[in-house]
Amino acid sequence: MRALGSVAVIVMAFGLGACGDDKTEGPEAKGPAVSEEGDLSLYCDIVEKLDKEGDQAFAELEDDKNATQEDFKKAEARFVEEHSGDLDELEAASPPEIRDDVTVLLQSLRARAGLGPEPDKEEARDAEKAITAFEKENC
User: Fold this and answer.
1) pLDDT above 70 covers what percent of the chain?
2) Average pLDDT over residues 132-137
3) Closest-CA residue to 88 (of 109, 73, 58)
4) Is the dihedral of CA 94, 95, 98, 103 positive or negative?
5) What's the start-to-end Cα distance of the chain, in Å?
6) pLDDT value at position 55?
7) Is the CB of residue 106 less than 8 Å from the CB of residue 12?
């Protein structure tokens, strides 16, 4: 299984995400509530699911020698939109040790898909490294 960091490497070429902050409180909450302790098992399951679906979604493009950067951008935006619920759930399930990193990485993925502002590139790279190391150890 590849980790979210690996998915991010793939996805940095195509992106994942959803726009807006869906973590509001009360009866109008739109996204999953963030748990203080997170849910490692759920987090790892979502990472595995996104990895597998990312591989499937981009297999044809990766094999197409005529695929352009624009083709990948369109595919990444489509993938992000189709998986926005998974990404919200991933962030909510993220363990506290990496939650800030997950938030930064998802913000970067959303930005690549044209769905939000881009974080600092160095901060995103550091987040990716931290997530990859965490997942290697825990997922």
Assistant:
1) 75
2) 93
3) 109
4) positive
5) 9
6) 85
7) no
